[in-house]
Q: What sequence folds into this?
C-alpha cells in the first residue's frame, strides 16, 4: 500500500488534536504510511465559499497541488475540509476553464489528480471490516453508541459516495466491525449548527439539544462522530446547552478514531480521552469492566456445563461398573 | 403590494443557470427546504419564500435578507428537494453576490468571513484563538462565546501565538488576486 | 405514372413555420408530379374530398400527403385514396409536422427541410406497387391478464356479449387492490359490497374461466391468433378437492407474511387471503411451510376434510389460443421504505403506508376495523392503543423526482381525505388530523365537494407544505414540516403517521411487456398507441389496455376504461376474418438458394420450405403469418426476399433523394 | 419563385455558414424510434435541422447497404435507431440488427470515414427527451467534423 498524503486542517492542529493523534495512531497501526501535506494551508472553509467561488477553489487547489508532491491519494479527516477539497477536485477536473483560472492566481499551477478520502471512506476501502474484526483486542460490546454523521460525511452522495445521503452507513459498519453496540436512530444527519457556532450560538443550542435527546432516546450512552466541528459543538458546548436550556445532559462524545483505537487495544490515555469536556473515561472503563464480567459469567456457565456433563458420564460409568460387579 | 419584476426575474434566473446550473423555475413550493432547515428559525424569510422571491424577481430584497447570510450550508434542503434543486448552492451564490456588491449584510456575517479570511491570508492557517478574539472585538462583544473559549483553553486547545505556515505568503497573494477578479457579472 | 402531392397547413401547426403554399408549388417541378395542392386541414372532410376529386379529375396513380406523422393519419388517408378508387398502398405520407414544423423555429430552414421530406416521399411513392390485404380466421376467445377490478369489468362485459374469456391472475384470488380497500371515495360506499358480487359473477359466469395463481410465460402469434403459454403455480393444494373451509389455516403451526394485509399482521404458511376470496382455495407458502423447510409437520394434510393437500404438486404449463389480449395488471404501492430514509426507512412502527391503513380501517381486516398504533399491537398484556393525533403525508413516491417519480399518482389526495374522514368516524370526532399536502387534486365528479366535507364537516386540518423529517421521541412520532402559507416551520407530535404512498406499476411489468411485445415507459406503465386517437390500444394489434397498468387511475376511471376496452375487443372480434397488412415479405424463388437463413431468423415462423415441381425445396413466406418486420429480408444472403412497401429500392431512393444537392 | 433560385439561395447560405452544408440520414424503426421522434415533435422539443429520417418497420430490416449507400451518396453522418434490446415490436429484430450494426461500426473506419459519423442507438416511443438529446449530440459531433469530402467508397 503506497504512501498517503495526510491533510489535518486547522481544527486538528489544536481544538481537535485528540482526533488528529488518534487518527494517525489508528491508521498507522492499520499499516498505512502517512505523510503530512507539505506547507498545507487552510481550505478556506465556508467563509471563502461565501465570499468568492474562485478564491475558494484556489485555496483548496493549492493544497491538492501540495498533496500531489507526496501522493495521488489524500485523506482529510475533517469532513468540512474533505468536502471542500473533494468537491474542488471534482469541479476542477470537470471544468478546464476553472482550472486555468485557478492556476492563473497560484504561484505554481496544479495539473495533477488527487483522490480525496474522508476517514470512514478510507478505512472501509483500504482496510475493510474483515481486517478490523481481526484487529479487535478490547471488547466494546457494552459500549452503546449512536454514530452521528452530521452534514458533510453523507451529503451530497455525489461527493461523499455514500449510497444514501439520508442514511449513511460507513461509520455504522466500522463501529459494528470493531464490536461496539451500535444503536439505530433517525437522526444521523440532522445538522448540529456547528458551522455557525461562533457568530450565532443560539442556533446550535436548539439543534444540539435535539441531538442529545435523540441519542438517549435510541438507548445510547455516547455519541460517535468523525467531525471536529460537530465534536466541539456537542462536547465543548454541552455545558452551555445545559445552562441555557435547563437540561442536564452528560453524554460523552467520542471520535470514530478513538473508538477504533480503544477496540484495537490502546489505552484511554493514549486516545487522549482526557481532552474532552464531558469525560468519557468513566463510561469507557465501565463498559470494559461490564464486558469482562459478562464474559466471565459466560465462561463460568460453560465450565459448569462441562463439569455437569463430566459428572454424569462418571456416574454412568460407575453404575455400569457396579452392575458388572453385581453380576 | 408587491410589484413583480419580470426583468430581474429573468436576469437572475439566467445568472443562476450559468453560475450554479440551477433553475429557480423548477421550484413548486412544496416547502420541504423550509421544513428541514435547521437555521430557518433565525431567518427573516423561510427558504421556500426566498425561492419564490427569486422566481418573481425580488432579488435585492433577497440579497439584503438575513436568511442568505444565516444559511449554514448543511445541504439538508438540497438533499431532500423533490425537484433536485441545489438550494444550498443557490444560497451560497447569493452570499458571494452580496459580497461583490459590497452590500451591508445583517448579523456581522461579512465581518466574520472577512476576519476569517484575513486571518488565513496572514498565517496560512486559521489561528482559532486569535480569530475568536478579533471577531469578538470587531463585533463589540468581547466575552461573546466565552462559554466555548474557556473550556477549550482549560483543555489546552487554544494556541495564542500563531505560527505562519510555509504557504502563508502564497495564500496572501491568492486572496488578493481572487478578490480583484471577482465581479457580479462573472 | 401520375403523382399528386398534397401539402397540409394543419392550421398554423405546419404553416406557422413552413411555407406550405410555396413548397406545394415547388413540388410541381418534381418528376412524375402532375398535381400539387396546399390544403388548410388535409384530414378534414373538405381536405379529403379535395384529394379524392384530384385523383379522379387528374387521374392520379400515386398520392403523397405532406402533413403529420403516419402514426397519426396514414390509415385515414389510405381509406381516403381507396375511396377514390386508388389502391391504398400507392400512398405515402411525408411527416412535415412532428419531424419538422414542430421542432424547428427558422422559417426558411424548416421550409427547405419540409420540401426535402416531400421529395423523399415522392421518390418512395414511385417505387410502390398496389398491394392487396388478405384475410385470416379469427379466434374469438379473449385473454385478460390480471383479475383486479379492471380485469373483472372487462371479463364480465365480454362474457355477457358472448365471448369466451380467460382471466389469468397471479395471486390465489381475483379482486386485486380494490379487494383490500375499505370504503371508496367520494361516495364512501363499501368497496367489498361493490366488488365481491362482481367477483362471484365472474366465477359463476358460463363464459368466464378464472386461472388464479397463474402467470403468462410466453405469447406468440398475432392479432386474431395468439398462442399463449400459461404457468399454473404449484399451490400444493388440489383445488379440485379444496372446499375452502379454512381448517388447515386455523391448525397450521407456521407463521408467514400476510401480503393481503400488507404485512400488518402475520398469516399461516397455508392460507386463504380473505373470506370472500374467489376462487376460495388454500395455498401453501413454500418458504414458510415446516414440511418443506424442516421435513416434518404435515398438520394440514391430517386436518384437511377434503384430502386436498398435495405436497408433490408442481408448476403446470398449459398452452392456449386467443384472438385478443387485455392487459389489466393493475398497480403496486410505491415501496417507500427503500427511498424515504428521512421518514425512517420503515423502521418506525407508527409510520405506515396508505394501503396498510386501509387494511386497518377495513372491518374484515386484521384489526376488525379498529384503528390502533402498530407500536402497541400484538403485545401480550396491554390493550392496543388508539391514536389521538394522526398525520397524513401526501405525495410520498409521487411528484418527487428525487425518487424518480415525477408523475402524480392521481388517487392519493382523494384516498387521504377518505381515510381522514374514516378516522374521525372510527376513532372519534375529537381525533386531531393533519394532512400535509402540496396541492389538492380533486378533479373527478363530486371530488372537490368531498375534500370540502373533510375540511369543514369533519374538521380535518389541511397543512400546505411537505414533511422533511420523521423521528421518534418519547413514544410519539415527531413530524417536522412546513406550513408554507404561514411561512414557517411546524412540528406535530403524532401517534400515527400515514404516508399517501403513490402508485407504481407491479414488479415485472417491463418483463411482461417484453413477453407480449408491447411498449412501456421508464416506470413500467404500458404505453397506449395514441393518447387521444387510440388510448385503449397498444401498438401491437390485438393487445389492449385496461386500468392502472397504463397510468395511475382511480376506480371510476378504471371501470369506465375497462368497458371502453371491452367494446374495442368486441369490435375487433365481431368479424369472422381479419384483414392482415399486405406489407409483408415475399420470396423470389427463382433466386432462392435454400439456405433456410430466413426460417432461422423469423420470430413468427412465417417462412416455410415449399416443394417445387422439380422436387427441390425453396423458401416461401406464409402470408397470414408474416408480420412484415423484414428481418429475413436483411438476412437473406442472396437478397431474394423483398418486403412489400419497404423494398430496398424504395428505401435507397429516399436516401439518395435526401442527399441530392 | 422557381426551384432553381430557391436551391441557389440555400447554396449561398451554405457558403456563409458551414452548418447548412451538413446532411445526416436517420434510419429509424417504425415502432420505437420513429414514434419517439414523433413524441419529441409533439412535445415541441427543438432539434437541429440537418437530419432526414427514413422509416423502416424494424431495425431488423436495416441492411448495412443503406448506410454505406448514404455515405457513398455524400451523407456526412448516418444515425440508426430502434427499440431497446428486449423491447422489439417483433420480439428479436433489434438483436439481429445489433449484430450487423456492430460489424458496420467496425467497418466504417476502414472506409476512411471518421467513426463519429456513424452511430446506432436505442430510443423508445416514450423517450422524446432522449431522442432530442441523441439527435442534438450526434448532429453536433458531425458538424464539428464538418462536411465529408465526397469520394466513392
A:
Amino acid at each position: 500500500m503506497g504512501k498517503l498524503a495526510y491533510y489535518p486542517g486547522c481544527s486538528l492542529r489544536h481544538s481537535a488534536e485528540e482526533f488528529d493523534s488518534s487518527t494517525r495512531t489508528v491508521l498507522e497501526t492499520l499499516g498505512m504510511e502517512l505523510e503530512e501535506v507539505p506547507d498545507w494551508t487552510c481550505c478556506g472553509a465556508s467563509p471563502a465559499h461565501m465570499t468568492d467561488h474562485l478564491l475558494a477553489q484556489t485555496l483548496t487547489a493549492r493544497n491538492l497541488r501540495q498533496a500531489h508532491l507526496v501522493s495521488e491519494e489524500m485523506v482529510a479527516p475533517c469532513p468540512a475540509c474533505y468536502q471542500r477539497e473533494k468537491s474542488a477536485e471534482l469541479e476542477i477536473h470537470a471544468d478546464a476553464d476553472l482550472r486555468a483560472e485557478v492556476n492563473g492566481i497560484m504561484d505554481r499551477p496544479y495539473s495533477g489528480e488527487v483522490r480525496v478520502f474522508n476517514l470512514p471512506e478510507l478505512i472501509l476501502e483500504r482496510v475493510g471490516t474483515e481486517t478490523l474484526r481481526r484487529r479487535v483486542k478490547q471488547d466494546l460490546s457494552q459500549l452503546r453508541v449512536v454514530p452521528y454523521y452530521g452534514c458533510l460525511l453523507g451529503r451530497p452522495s455525489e461527493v461523499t459516495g455514500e449510497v444514501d445521503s439520508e442514511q449513511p452507513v460507513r461509520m455504522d459498519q466500522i463501529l459494528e466491525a470493531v464490536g461496539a453496540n451500535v444503536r439505530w436512530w433517525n437522526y444521523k444527519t440532522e445538522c448540529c449548527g456547528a458551522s455557525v457556532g461562533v457568530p450565532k450560538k443560539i442556533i446550535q443550542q436548539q439543534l444540539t439539544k435535539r441531538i442529545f435527546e435523540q441519542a438517549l432516546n435510541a438507548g445510547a450512552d455516547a455519541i460517535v462522530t468523525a467531525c471536529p466541528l460537530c465534536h466541539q459543538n456537542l462536547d465543548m458546548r454541552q455545558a452551555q446547552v445545559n445552562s441555557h436550556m435547563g437540561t442536564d445532559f452528560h453524554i460523552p462524545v467520542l471520535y470514530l478514531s478513538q473508538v477504533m483505537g480503544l477496540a484495537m487495544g490502546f489505552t484511554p490515555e493514549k486516545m487522549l480521552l482526557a481532552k474532552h469536556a464531558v469525560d468519557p473515561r468513566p463510561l469507557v472503563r465501565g463498559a470494559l469492566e461490564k464486558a469482562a464480567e459478562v464474559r466471565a459469567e459466560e465462561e463460568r456457565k460453560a465450565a459448569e456445563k462441562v463439569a455437569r456433563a463430566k459428572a454424569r458420564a462418571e456416574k454412568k460409568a460407575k453404575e455400569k461398573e457396579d452392575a458388572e460387579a453385581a453380576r | 403590494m408587491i410589484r413583480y419584476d419580470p426583468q430581474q426575474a429573468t436576469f437572475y434566473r439566467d445568472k443562476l443557470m450559468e453560475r450554479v446550473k440551477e433553475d429557480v423555475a423548477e421550484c413548486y413550493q412544496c416547502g420541504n427546504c423550509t421544513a428541514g432547515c435547521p437555521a430557518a428559525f433565525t431567518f427573516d424569510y423561510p427558504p421556500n419564500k426566498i425561492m419564490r422571491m427569486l422566481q418573481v424577481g425580488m432579488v435585492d430584497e433577497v440579497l439584503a435578507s438575513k436568511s442568505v447570510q444565516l444559511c449554514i450550508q448543511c445541504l439538508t434542503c438540497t438533499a431532500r428537494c423533490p425537484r433536485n434543486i441545489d438550494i444550498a448552492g443557490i444560497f451560497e451564490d447569493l452570499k458571494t453576490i452580496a459580497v461583490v456588491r459590497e452590500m451591508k449584510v445583517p448579523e456581522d456575517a461579512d465581518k466574520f468571513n472577512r476576519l476569517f479570511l484575513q486571518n488565513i491570508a496572514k498565517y496560512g492557517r486559521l489561528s482559532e484563538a486569535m480569530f475568536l478574539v478579533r471577531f469578538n472585538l470587531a463585533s463589540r462583544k468581547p466575552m461573546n462565546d466565552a462559554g466555548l473559549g474557556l473550556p477549550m483553553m482549560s483543555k489546552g486547545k487554544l494556541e495564542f501565538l500563531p505560527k505562519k505556515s510555509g504557504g502563508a505568503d502564497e495564500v496572501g497573494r491568492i486572496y488578493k488576486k481572487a478578490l480583484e477578479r471577482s465581479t457580479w457579472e462573472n | 405514372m401520375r403523382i399528386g402531392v398534397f401539402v397540409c397547413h394543419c392550421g398554423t401547426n405546419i404553416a406557422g413555420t413552413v411555407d406550405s403554399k410555396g413548397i406545394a408549388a415547388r413540388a410541381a417541378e418534381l418528376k412524375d408530379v402532375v398535381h400539387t395542392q396546399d390544403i388548410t386541414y388535409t384530414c378534414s372532410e373538405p381536405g379529403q374530398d379535395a384529394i379524392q376529386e384530384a385523383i379522379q379529375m387528374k387521374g392520379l396513380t400515386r398520392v403523397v400527403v405532406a402533413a403529420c406523422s403516419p402514426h397519426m393519419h396514414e390509415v385515414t388517408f389510405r381509406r381516403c385514396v381507396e375511396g377514390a378508387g386508388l389502391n391504398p398502398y400507392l400512398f405515402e405520407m411525408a411527416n412535415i409536422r412532428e419531424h419538422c414544423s414542430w421542432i424547428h423555429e427558422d422559417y426558411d430552414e424548416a421550409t427547405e427541410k419540409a420540401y426535402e421530406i416531400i421529395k423523399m416521399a415522392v421518390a418512395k411513392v414511385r417505387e410502390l406497387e398496389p398491394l392487396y390485404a388478405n384475410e385470416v380466421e379469427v379466434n374469438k376467445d379473449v385473454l385478460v391478464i390480471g383479475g383486479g377490478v379492471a380485469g373483472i369489468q372487462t371479463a364480465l362485459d365480454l362474457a355477457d356479449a358472448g365471448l369466451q374469456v380467460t382471466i389469468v391472475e397471479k395471486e390465489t384470488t381475483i379482486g386485486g387492490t380494490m379487494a383490500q380497500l375499505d370504503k371508496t371515495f367520494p361516495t364512501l360506499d363499501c368497496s367489498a359490497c361493490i366488488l365481491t358480487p362482481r367477483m362471484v359473477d365472474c366465477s359463476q359466469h358460463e363464459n368466464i374461466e378464472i386461472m388464479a395463481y397463474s402467470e403468462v410465460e410466453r405469447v406468440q402469434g398475432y392479432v386474431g391468433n395468439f398462442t399463449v403459454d400459461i404457468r399454473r403455480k404449484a399451490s400444493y393444494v388440489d383445488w379440485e378437492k379444496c372446499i375452502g373451509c379454512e381448517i388447515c389455516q386455523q391448525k397450521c403451526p407456521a407463521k408467514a407474511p400476510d401480503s393481503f394485509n400488507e404485512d400488518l399482521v402475520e398469516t399461516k404458511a397455508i392460507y386463504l387471503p380473505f373470506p370472500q376470496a374467489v376462487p376460495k382455495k388454500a395455498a401453501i407458502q413454500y418458504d414458510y411451510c415446516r414440511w418443506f423447510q424442516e421435513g416434518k409437520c404435515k398438520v394440514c394434510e391430517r386436518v384437511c376434510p377434503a384430502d386436498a393437500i398435495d405436497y408433490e404438486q408442481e408448476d403446470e404449463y398449459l398452452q392456449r389460443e386467443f384472438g385478443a389480449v387485455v392487459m389489466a395488471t393493475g398497480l403496486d404501492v410505491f415501496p417507500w421504505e427503500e427511498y424515504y430514509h428521512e421518514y425512517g426507512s420503515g423502521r418506525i412502527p407508527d409510520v405506515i403506508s396508505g394501503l396498510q391503513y386501509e387494511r386497518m380501517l377495513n372491518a374484515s381486516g386484521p384489526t376488525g376495523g379498529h384503528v390502533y398504533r402498530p407500536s402497541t399491537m400484538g403485545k401480550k398484556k396491554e390493550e392496543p392503543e388508539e391514536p389521538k393525533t394522526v398525520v397524513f403525508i401526501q405525495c410520498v413516491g409521487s411528484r418527487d423526482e428525487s425518487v424518480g417519480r415525477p408523475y402524480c399518482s392521481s388517487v392519493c389526495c382523494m384516498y387521504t381525505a377518505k381515510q381522514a374522514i374514516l378516522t374521525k368516524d372510527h376513532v372519534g370526532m375529537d381525533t386531531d388530523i393533519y394532512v400535509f399536502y402540496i396541492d389538492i387534486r380533486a378533479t373527478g365528479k363530486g371530488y372537490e365537494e368531498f375534500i370540502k366535507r373533510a375540511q369543514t364537516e369533519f374538521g380535518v386540518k389541511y397543512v400546505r407544505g411537505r414533511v422533511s423529517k420523521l423521528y421518534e421521541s418519547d413514544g410519539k412520532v415527531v413530524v417536522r414540516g412546513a406550513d408554507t402559507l404561514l411561512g414557517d416551520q411546524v412540528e406535530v407530535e403524532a401517534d400515527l403517521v400515514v404516508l399517501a404512498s403513490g402508485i407504481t406499476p407491479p414488479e415485472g411489468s417491463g418483463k411482461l411487456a417484453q413477453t407480449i411485445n408491447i411498449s412501456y415507459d421508464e416506470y413500467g406503465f404500458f404505453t397506449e398507441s395514441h393518447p387521444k386517437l387510440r388510448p385503449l390500444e397498444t401498438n401491437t394489434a390485438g393487445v389492449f389496455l385496461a386500468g392502472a397498468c397504463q397510468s395511475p387511475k382511480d376506480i371510476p376511471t378504471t371501470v369506465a376504461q375497462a368497458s371502453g376496452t371491452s367494446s374495442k375487443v368486441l369490435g375487433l372480434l365481431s368479424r369472422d376474418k381479419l384483414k392482415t397488412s399486405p406489407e409483408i415479405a415475399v420470396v423470389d424463388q427463382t433466386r432462392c438458394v435454400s439456405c433456410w437463413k430466413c426460417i432461422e431468423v423469423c420470430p413468427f415462423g412465417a417462412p416455410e420450405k415449399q416443394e417445387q415441381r422439380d422436387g427441390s425445396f425453396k423458401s416461401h413466406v406464409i402470408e397470414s403469418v408474416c408480420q412484415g418486420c423484414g428481418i429475413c429480408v436483411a438476412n437473406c444472403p442472396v437478397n431474394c426476399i423483398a418486403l412489400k412497401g419497404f423494398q430496398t429500392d424504395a428505401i435507397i431512393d429516399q436516401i439518395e433523394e435526401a442527399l441530392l444537392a | 419563385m422557381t426551384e432553381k433560385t430557391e436551391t441557389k439561395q440555400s447554396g449561398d447560405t451554405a457558403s456563409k455558414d458551414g452548418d447548412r452544408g451538413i446532411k445526416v440520414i436517420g434510419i429509424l424503426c417504425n415502432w420505437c424510434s420513429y414514434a419517439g421522434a414523433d413524441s419529441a415533435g409533439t412535445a415541441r422539443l427543438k432539434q437541429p435541422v440537418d437530419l432526414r429520417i427514413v422509416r423502416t418497420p424494424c431495425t431488423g430490416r436495416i441492411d448495412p447497404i443503406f448506410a454505406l449507400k448514404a455515405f457513398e451518396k455524400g451523407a456526412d453522418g448516418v444515425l440508426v435507431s430502434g427499440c431497446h434490446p428486449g423491447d422489439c415490436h417483433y420480439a428479436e429484430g433489434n438483436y439481429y440488427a445489433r449484430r450487423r450494426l456492430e460489424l458496420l461500426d467496425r467497418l466504417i473506419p476502414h472506409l476512411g470515414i471518421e467513426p463519429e459519423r456513424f452511430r446506432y442507438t436505442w430510443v423508445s416511443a416514450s423517450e422524446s427527451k432522449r431522442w432530442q438529446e441523441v439527435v442534438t449530440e450526434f448532429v453536433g459531433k458531425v458538424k464539428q467534423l464538418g462536411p465529408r469530402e465526397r469520394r466513392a467508397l
